[in-house]
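Contributing new records

If you add data, match the layout below exactly. Sequence lines come first and carry their own label; structure lines follow with theirs. Keep one chain per record. Anything else will be rejected by the validation script.
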Amino acid sequence: MKFSYRTDFPAPLDQVLDVLASEELAQRRADTLHINDYSFSSSAPAKGERTYSMTAKVGAERLPDQIRKFIKNGLSARIESKQCVVGADSATVEHAVSLTGAPVKLAFVLNLDEESGVTHALYEGEFNVNVPFVGKTIEQKAGGYVDDVIARDAKLVIEELR
């Protein structure tokens, strides 16, 4: 299932990129989700590029009942991100999400463009649920939550920008 979401960050592009790759934002994300078992790493392999990743583990007991039917042993999520500055006022951030223990694939790109000190953000991606017979139904139901999840995360980014 494909998704798209737009928002604005009230800061210049360089500040937004710094916050997105910060350990402080990773900590806020973990705190918001009540995740204690996580790790974060960041590096800058080349000029105009930065990579960062976050890995988190969630026990089965913390998952909703309907999800626990499919994920009996909890899950481990890894988000790998790569920032690439593509111009003086624009950048992309590619995200690949892998969920060990869950039949889900998720990837998205965050396109960022700065204009007058405000960074416009466009999230575009796709997620797939690979469960025989019900995967598409689960995708459709989960699709309603994608905008909410992105909006909550964007709010965390905005709070870190302050």
